[in-house]
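Weekly sync, protein design subgroup
Attendees: M.S., D.O., the rotation student, P.L. (late)

Item 1: inverse folding check
M.S. brought a backbone from last month's batch and wanted to see whether the design step gives back something sensible before we order anything. D.O. pointed out we never logged the input encoding, so this time it goes straight into the notes. Structure tokens as presented (153 positions):
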């Protein structure tokens, strides 16, 4: 890999790392918003997350094109790995992969929080609408008991 291509790839990886760090912080803020009481904060953080993911995708496309043009393979580039990868590029790549793995985990946690909240809301709506809540018998079987609606419009 020539010096210019290596430097450009390092710069691009540095930008990806910076965006991944911002994404990690945004995911943490999103988790806080999800456990808070402000739907507006959740919407803002979700929009920011979407914007950051689009930026990462764009940088990823640039990185793949640059790697292919330089004949330098990194995982995910569809170019066979060469033996001449610069250690500085490899170190940046490992850092980026570690950050993105942390972001994936944080996003999965946020998804679990969303699903839990959705389930709670559906249960509450069922109670308000007078639906049959599901409970468990002493034997562990599910029982649906009909309740009267709390209110009618």
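Designed sequence read out in the meeting:
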């Amino acid at each position: 890999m020539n010096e210019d291509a290596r430097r450009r790839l390092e710069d691009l990886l540095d930008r990806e790392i910076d965006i991944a760090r911002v994404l990690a912080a945004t995911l943490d803020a999103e988790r806080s918003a999800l456990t808070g009481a402000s739907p507006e904060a959740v919407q803002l953080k979700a929009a920011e997350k979407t914007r950051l993911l689009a930026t990462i995708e764009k940088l990823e496309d640039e990185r793949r094109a640059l790697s292919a043009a330089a004949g330098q393979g990194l995982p995910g580039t569809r170019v066979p790995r060469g033996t001449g990868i610069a250690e500085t590029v490899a170190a940046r790549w490992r850092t980026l992969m570690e950050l993105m793995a942390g972001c994936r985990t944080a996003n999965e946690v946020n998804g679990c929080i969303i699903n839990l909240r959705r389930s709670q809301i559906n249960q509450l709506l069922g109670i308000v609408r007078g639906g049959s809540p599901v409970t468990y018998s002493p034997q562990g079987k599910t029982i649906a008991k009909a309740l009267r609606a709390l209110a009618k419009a």
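Discussion: Helices lie at 3-34, 39-70, 87-128. The first helix runs from residue 3 to 34.
Action: P.L. to compare against the previous round before Friday.
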